[in-house]
Amino acid sequence: MPFASLGLSPALSHAAAQAGFLAPTPIQAAAIPAVLEGADVRGAAQTGSGKTAAFALPLLQILSLSDVGAKGPRRVRALVLVPTRELAAQVGEVLRSLAQHVQQPPKVAVVFGGVSINPQMMGLRSGADIVVATPGRLLDLVDHNALRLSAVAHLVLDEADRLLDLGFAEELQRVLALLPARRQNLFFSATFPAAVQTLADSLLNNPVHVDVPGTPGNEPAIEQRAIAVDASRRTQLLRHLVKEHHWSRVLVFVATQYAAEHVAEKLYKAGIYASPFHGGLSQGARKQVLQEFKDERWQVVVTTDLAARGIDIAQLPAVVNYDLPRSAVDYVHRIGRTGRAGDSGVAVSFVTADAEAHFRLIEKRQNLTLPREQIAGFEPTETASTAAVPGSGTGGIKGTRPSKKDKLRAAAAAAAAAAGAADSAAQKKGS
Ligand code: AMP
């Protein structure tokens, strides 16, 4: 099925072809006509299945047919909210590259925190047609009168369930209060837990529900494995797996910023190019690590759930849950960093004795039963302890809060991180 048959103009069909999209993915085939018709959409489809273009292509078409480029200041017509800075940059890039092919390209502004606000304010001086933003910085810019949202006709929540959950509730309410009541709402995610679905539907107006189920034909080809291992042997096992499978790149998830620093450092000392990536790093360091990982200059990136959502790293063969995710939803997003856009990938979860019960819950929610593999030389000897100790294999389990000491360690690690990341990157560059 060609893109044009979905109602896309020749310019945007050409834009899709130039992006290398031969045919629409199922979410695109279902969502694009609905968005073009002006309907509200709640779109759910697997990770890596082309959700960005599912809203970007029709939005660009709608805006290119409206008064964009007409005389007068540009007014923000479309607002795309995302939960992380990296995702803002990524979605902005997709919109800009597709927009190039439109005759009078809408202007796309990308704003997020962690960097100076001044260049963003300057960039908004001549207005923007589309703003891609993290909620906090968007509100700062509104407070600085750098931006008005009163003409927004299209609101996109990318990773909608994350934006609708408690962590963003207050900011999201403030943003919604600044938007016109009459607007098109487009909510996309790979996961919509039941509680969030109700909230989402209360914000949507007579929505089209696009649910692309994970049928064998279009499910991402992610091989899921669970390896039973003692908490204290996980780093060695990780080294073993990286070498044995010759993984060109691996994204390793841990529970805390401290663990990201610690595990990356151990791997680096063992001769594997590994870098931490987490919210305690400066935005400059975060950007650099991610770009270098995409450029295959780091073999392993050890991260928190910061990297679990939306981030698109082409040809990432493996994801490892060194610490288990807190929830089944997080599991879906973490493993979804591999097996994207038709590629295959492997997702390995380390299951310590203390984490066994938690992993069983994740399996149950996912309708999944994975055999517990044992790797020769790494056979587990530990049994579950009664007290869950953060960092000993149960880190990240819902309800396990970091202790004061953990927080202090994380803060110290964060402070050391910027310098550390810069140092190790410099070392690596020099090598
Ligand atoms: P997303 O889910 O939007 O992050 O997209 C995941 C990956 O799929 C990205 O690398 C996109 O460039 C790619 N992609 C999106 N749409 C298509 C398509 N129609 N055909 C092939 N690849 C696509």
How are strands sequenced across the largest beta sheet?
A: 3-4-2-5-6-1-7
Question: What is the mean predicted local confidence, pLDDT?
Answer: 88
Largest sheet: 7 strands, parallel
Structural class: alpha/beta
Give the total of beta strands: 14
The succession of helices and strands, N to C, reads HHEHEHEHEHEHHEHEEHEHEHEEHEHEH
Measured distance between first and last alpha carbons? 48 Å
Number of domains: 2
Find the CATH superfamily of the largest domain.
P-loop containing nucleotide triphosphate hydrolases
User: Could you name the ranges where pLDDT drops below 50 across 5 or more consecutive residues?
Assistant: 389-401, 416-431
CATH architecture of the largest domain: 3-Layer(aba) Sandwich
Bound molecules: adenosine monophosphate
Radius of gyration from the alpha-carbon trace, in angstroms: 22 Å
Describe this structure in words.
It is a single chain. The protein has 431 residues and is an alpha/beta fold. The protein folds into two domains: 3-212, P-loop containing nucleotide triphosphate hydrolases (Rossmann fold), CATH 3.40.50; 221-388, 3-Layer(aba) Sandwich (Rossmann fold), CATH 3.40.50.300. It is built from 15 helices and 14 strands. The strands form two sheets. The chain has a seven-stranded parallel β-sheet with strand order 3-4-2-5-6-1-7, with helices on both faces. Helix 12 (283-294) links the parallel strand 10 (274-277) and strand 11 (300-303). Helix 2 packs parallel to helix 3 (51-65) and helix 3 (51-65) crosses helix 4. The longest helix is centred in the last third of the chain and has 27 residues, at 404-430. Residues 389-401 and 416-431 have low confidence and may be disordered. The structure holds adenosine monophosphate. Adenosine monophosphate (AMP) is lined by residues 21, 24-25, 28, 48-53, 312, 314, 340-341.
